[in-house]
Amino acid sequence: MSILNSSNIKTLEFDVLVIGGGGSGMRTSLELAKSGLRTAVVSKVFPTRSHTVSAQGGITCAIASADPQDDWRWHMYDTVKGSDYIGDQDAIEYMCSEGPKAVFELEHMGLPFSRTENGRIYQRPFGGQSKDFGKGGQAARTCAAADRTGHALLHTLYQNNVKEGSNFLNEWFAVDLVLNKFKEVTGVVAFAIESGEVAYLKAQATVLATGGAGRIYASTTNALINTGDGLGMSLRAGIPAQDMEMWQFHPTGIYGAGSLVTEGCRGEGGYLINKDGERFMERYAPNAKDLAGRDVVARSMVLEILEGRGCGEDKDHVFLKLDHLGADVLNAKLPGICELSRTFAAVDPVYEPIPVVPTCHYMMGGTPTNIHGQAFKLSSSDDDYIPGLFSVGEAACVSVHGANRLGGNSLLDLVVFGRAAGLHINEALKSGGGVANCDNDDIDLALHNLNKLNESSRGYEVSAVKKELQEVMQNYFGVFRRGDYMDKGVTALTEIREKIENLHLKDKSAAFNTNRVEAIELQNLFEVAEATAISSLQRTESRGAHAREDYPDRDDENWLCHSLYDPTTKVLGKRHVNFEPSQVDAFPPKVRTY
Amino acid sequence: MISVNIYRYNPEKDSFPYMQTFEFEKPKRDIMVLELLNQIKEKDPTISYRRSCREGVCGSDGMNINGKNGLACITPLSTVIKKNKLDLRPLPGLPVIRDLVVDMADFYAQYEKIKPFLQNDTPVDIGERLQSPEDRDKLDGLYECILCACCSTSCPSFWWNPDKFVGPAALLQAYRFIADSRDTKTAERLQNLSDPFSVYRCHGIMNCVSVCPKGLNPNEAIGEIKSMLLSGKNKENIIASDAVS
Ligand SMILES: Cc1cc2nc3c(=O)[nH]c(=O)nc-3n(C[C@H](O)[C@H](O)[C@H](O)COP(=O)(O)OP(=O)(O)OC[C@H]3O[C@@H](n4cnc5c(N)ncnc54)[C@H](O)[C@@H]3O)c2cc1C
Ligand code: SF4
Ligand code: SF4
Ligand code: FES
Q: Are B63 and B96 part of one and the same domain?
């Protein structure tokens, strides 16, 4: 294979590149479809194979179906509290107040929501939901299509993109960002997986909608393709990442397999039990019980296991009990869960409880953006953006989830901010915004890593290094964290870095070379893992999903802020949290109990 | 020991496809076929196949497993292995790009042909369109399709006419929109399927039903479409005549 450079690869030119065909990317492209701008959606898998398809429980939004009195401000309150007060309140306000519009739009597009008797969208209770600013008891605010909401949402978005004639580059893999001499993003270098052909995809606006990176951990609910490619690309380009220590561990991953069992199970009345059959969440969260925040439930489960009350031979998991709901409810409301549980746990929830453990689920951190999806520079100022670069969805940190995401808020984040980014880009490009051209050298620089892999004649094996990385993250940066362990983890990562830079690509062929894809994915995983490790070590407090044994308390004096990881210096800086919503008073930090 | 025979073909090197055998220690616990493939790929990273969700919801890893189409990720080895032998081949009837990866262009083109999106020109001012739970129930067994192509690529009629016969997967989706109380284009949808090929090439062979990993029944949906075409009745003119009487 000859060395790739700017003169031997072709250029495909667009106005807007949306990297990612999941819910967030396809909502962005849908917004742009009618704009007349030349938009391309680049996705490494056919869009309906994106991870959004796996979302089960629903999309949380105050559409006032289950409760006609419901109010987006209550949803906002829950989300701020859930975030442990480092969610940006302007963004949360925007999401919660714009949410109903976005959900009704999905319905109009054809999303097959489950229905109530009076024909409205069905809503179920999820964790961390309350009425009347925490004073009115449990709310039911998660709009659902049975337990296949993500599938229904993703297919609906794809269908409407087909309707509007969106342009897809399916099974194209984005490798690295191209930046010009002004450090503006001018597109990406990418290759068609089917043919191996490499191209420079040039654009005035590049949107990273590449999803999460749960595969940095050995045990995760995430799809195999969730390798944080967008973040890998931006970190390699020296662009900062925010709140990377904040990883959500979902309480109910199927023991052994990692597949998710939706929180909707507990919303419908299921609960967790330990080996004595005790409903232990009554002890840890007397009010919300099994529907406390996810971080709270996950930690309680680990404590039960550590104190010897775990289930099974090794006492290393707990049970989720559903059988008391009866076969009818389970088949109507949770059919997908019954299927998964029979397949992956060999357990029929109609008769037996499902073995579950906290499992890595969601990346709260990501590329810092404002509500228009514009990516922030590494700077303390709030209007310092990276021209040409945008991010939406799980890859972005806008930040509505802060230190802990509430269930059902991600799907809402995807459609609200996907739409917002589309609107903004349309306006900006039409009023003359855009970026300067890059030089050939800039393209060559972006091809460097790919060339190096293609030229490798020996070195480390992709699959072995990936396992090593995942074990380190699992062991040192899990549900509970400790400075001395994390130190060891960071040292281990330094050793892995050397391997990452010297991977051996065994298969050099062009057509559908998944070895090449996996090698680059591993490099991206590594960047995300390192950002996670360093951020976790340096945030010396416990907040939301970040629980440290050596710093067990929340420290608002020093850490009521975002962390901002600088990949060039590997130092953690701080960014202030927004406490300035425009339509309501800000919610001040309080002690967070459920 | 078990032997896993995998269909290999790399257009750059191979003039013809061939089967490659991997000998494997029989796994102690029952594993999914995808997990087995992943383990083989650790040894030989040149094997290509698609996969994403690893839990049967994304539709990436449809393949022919010991003669039957299915999703590798939710097919337990114990249910398919025969005499300690397992054959893995690409989905039949579509061009092979490499190894277990097929070119799905024809399959997606048929899907697009049926206009797979809700059509309803009546604007809604505020809120959602209402739909009764009974009407919503009519979409169950239809909307869950994951476009894995296991059905269409097991259908002899689709093999012979992948460009003209819409095939079970897309017909199931055609019916999903016909059945949706919110969609107002039933007559047009039926009209688009009324030529001799689109639907009528289905001869009720039922392969599609027996392979669908999501337990869906394209044959039944096709039957509904055929009877609507024959009777000229559909939900729109039924509603209209109800309104008159
Ligand atoms: C099992 C599970 C259940 C969940 N359930 C819920 C729920 O009920 N409610 C809720 O709100 N949230 C839920 N979540 C979270 C939510 O599903 C995700 O956060 C969300 O779907 C992410 O969407 P996205 O658009 O950001 O990215 P994704 O859907 O992950 O899409 C990423 C896209 O980027 C593309 N891509 C990535 N890298 C590259 C590259 N290098 N080149 C080209 N393309 C690339 C991929 O092909 C893909 O199209 C769940 C998550 C899991 C794991
Ligand atoms: S029933 Fe029809 S669609 Fe299904 S396999 Fe047979 S011929 Fe094909
Ligand atoms: S109908 Fe079933 S087999 Fe056919 S594409 Fe859909 S999910 Fe796959
Ligand atoms: S990997 Fe998604 S269906 Fe098998």
A: yes
Q: How many domains does chain B have?
A: 2
Q: Check residue A256 and give its pLDDT.
A: 86
> Phi/psi of residue B7, each to 5°?
-70, 125
**Site to substitute for ligand 1 among A51, A147, A173, most atoms within 8 A of C-beta:** A51
Which parts of chain A register pLDDT below 70? 1, 380, 382
Q: Cβ contacts (< 8 Å) between B46 and chain A: which residues? A: 506-507, 509, 515
CA distance B115 to chain A (A): 7
* Contact present, A559 and A539 (Cβ < 8 Å): yes
Cβ-contact B91, B106 below 8 angstroms: no
For residues B132 and B30, membership in a common domain is answered with no
Q: Is the pLDDT of residue B242 over 60?
A: no
Question: Are B62 and B109 contained in the same domain?
Answer: no
Q: Report the share of chain B in percent with pLDDT over 90.
A: 85
Q: Report residue A453 as tokens.
A: 């892999």
Looking at the fold, whether B130 and B18 belong to one and the same domain comes out as no
Residue A38 designated active-site:
no
- B23 — pLDDT class (breaks 50, 70, 90): very high
Which ligand gives the minimal distance to the CA of B104? 3
Is residue B123 located within the same domain as residue B233? yes
Q: Which CATH number do you get for residue B25?
A: 3.10.20.30
Residue closest to A247 by CA, chosen among A210, A222, A284, A272: A222
Å between A513 CA and nearest CA of chain B: 7
**Domain end residue (candidates: B48, B81, B102):** B102
pLDDT value at residue A531: 98
Separation between Cα atoms, residue A112 and residue A89, nearest integer Å: 31
Contact B56 A343 (CB under 8 A): yes
Place of tokens 């925007």: A94
* Same domain, yes or no: B66 and B145: no
Backbone angles phi, psi at B183, to 5 degrees: -95, 135
Partners of B57 on chain A (C-beta within 8 Å) are 53-54, 148, 151, 336
Q: Which CATH number do you get for residue B181?
A: 1.10.1060.10
Structural domain of B17: 2-102
Q: How many CB atoms lie within 10 A of CB A135?
A: 9
Query: Whole-structure pTM over 0.90, yes or no?
Result: yes
For A165-223, the pLDDT digits (tens) are 999 999 999 999 999 999 999 999 999 999 999 999 999 999 999 999 999 999 899 99
How far does Cα A284 stand from its chain's mean position? Answer: 27
Q: Which of A77, A208, A217, A124 is nearest to A408 (CA)?
A: A124
Report the range of poorest mean pLDDT among A109-113, A310-314, B69-73, B88-92: A310-314
Single residue among B44, B67, B102 that ends a domain in this structure? B102
B9 and B92: one domain? yes
Banded model confidence at residue B19, pLDDT cuts 50, 70, 90: very high
Q: Are residues B120 and B63 in the same domain?
A: no
Of A53, A104, A464, the CB nearest to B53: A53
- A219-245 pLDDT, tens digit per residue, is 899 999 999 999 999 999 999 999 999
Report d(CA A317, CA A310) in Å as an integer.
Answer: 5
Q: Are residues A405 and A55 in contact, defined by beta-carbon separation less than 8 angstroms? A: no
- In eight-state DSSP terms, residue A49 is G
Catalytic residue, chosen from A124, A215, A236, A294, is A294
> Residue B181: CB partners within 8 Å, gap ≥ 6?
B131, B132, B135, B138, B235
d(CA A456, CA B82): 40
- From the CA of B213, how many Å to the nearest CA of chain A? 11
Which helix (H) or strand (E) element contains residue A456? none
Nearest to A49 among B49, B52, B126 (CB): B52
